[in-house]
Amino acid sequence: MNSKILNIANFFTVLNLLCGLIAIVFFSNGLVNFGCLFIIFASFFDFLDGYFARKLNISSDFGKQADSLSDMISFGVAPAILLFDITKGILKNNLDYTNEIHIVLTSSFVFIYSVAALIRLSLFNNQSTHFNGIPSPVAALTVILLPFVEFEINLIIISCYVFILSFLMIMNLQIISIKKINKNTIYFSSILLVLSIFLIVFFKFTAVPLILASYILLSTIFVKNEYL
Predict the structure, then answer these.
(1) What is the CATH code of the structural domain delimited by 8-127+136-173?
(2) pLDDT tens digits, residue range 16-67?
(3) What is the C-alpha separation between 46 and 28, in angstroms, rounded?
(4) Rounded CA gap, 118 and 68, in Å?
(5) Separation between Cα atoms, residue 130 and residue 109, nearest integer Å
């Protein structure tokens, strides 16, 4: 088989895809914790496939297409399944929603997230130092922390979450990519890491939206001042 297909970067792409599919199976069967864990694995493998593709200069059209497809499954579809499951649970606990078909159809609005992920992966697939909008793995990691927050999630919160994340994925705003490691990206990552630890200590899982906002704000500052 062609060496452009059989290489270590594409191996990690396949692992990313498998983790996304396994996460979907877990979410569909109510095993949320395991599903979230496999989304984390998928994001790790996604980082590795990009790292080795650049490091070993083994990028190919096949690899790029396979990477986009894997990302769509792991970070576009799987998180939407989780959002759908959470929304369905909220509606089932609401006495105004007793019809199963009504619940399913109403919950389906969360798949706007998947549409946004598809648009993001289709339009912004060739970026190195910057992203246009937040990358889909970041959005997915934000979604999977929802089941662990310490306050009650209602339909308003889940709706805002879906629409804000969807908008952030497709907005025309430059976000720093840490895939290309250099002095400035290390500096950026160090600031973000310290800030994230501080927020997590004080806010625990609720800190995730604040960390995301910090990521966007820091990116804007770095890009505006041409640090990267």
Answers:
(1) 1.20.120
(2) 999 999 999 999 999 999 999 999 999 999 988 888 887 887 777 777 888 8
(3) 23
(4) 9
(5) 30
Helices 112-123 and 136-143 sit at what angle, rounded to 10 degrees?
160
Segments making up each domain of the chain, as ranges? 8-127+136-173
Length of the chain: 228
* Rg of the chain, C-alpha, whole Å: 18
End-to-end CA distance of the chain: 39
The tokens for 54 are 């650049």
Q: How far apart are CA 183 and CA 167, in angstroms?
A: 30
pLDDT digits (tens, 9 = 90+) for 169-226: 998 878 877 666 667 778 888 888 898 888 888 887 778 888 888 888 888 888 776 5
Angle at 189 between CA 53 and CA 43, to 5 degrees: 45
Q: SS3 letters for 168-205?
A: HHHCCCEEECCCCCCHHHHHHHHHHHHHHHHHHHHHHH
- Secondary element (H or E) of residue 52: helix 32-55
Q: Which residues pair with 130 in a beta bridge?
A: 176
What burial letters (b/e) apply to 125-158, b meaning 16+ CB within 10 Å? eeeeebbbbbbbbbbbbbbbbbbebeeeeeeeeb
Q: Cα–Cα distances in Å, from 112 out to 4, 48, 76, 228?
A: 34, 28, 10, 32
